[in-house]
Design a protein that fits this description.
By secondary structure, this protein is mainly β. It is built from no helices and three strands. The chain has a three-stranded antiparallel β-sheet, with no helix packed on it. It is extended.
Length: 85
């Protein structure tokens, strides 16, 4: 679970993302990582909104929106490289 996202201005403009486990684990505290980009995707699931970015039409694979996973079949991804954004 994301606990916080902050701009970390130490020479480079990067994002400091702190996460905590979803379930309680004794001794597990927050984890902090730094990223160049952060996407906030908190829209409604009933009307999918696919992002339009340069070059997406050249991608020959399948693109899904979370909305499509109501009928999720994990075997569709067997032996495939998967990117989740």
């Amino acid at each position: 679970t994301v606990a916080s996202v902050k701009v970390d201005v130490d020479g480079e403009r990067r994002y400091r993302v702190a996460t905590v486990p979803t379930s309680k684990h004794d001794g597990v505290e927050e984890t902090v990582e730094h990223f160049d980009f952060v996407f906030v995707c908190n829209g409604h699931f009933s009307l999918p909104n696919m992002p339009d970015f340069e070059g997406h039409e050249q991608f020959e694979g399948t693109q899904y929106h979370l909305h499509s996973f109501r009928t999720f079949k994990p075997e569709e991804f067997d032996d495939k490289n998967v990117l989740v954004v």
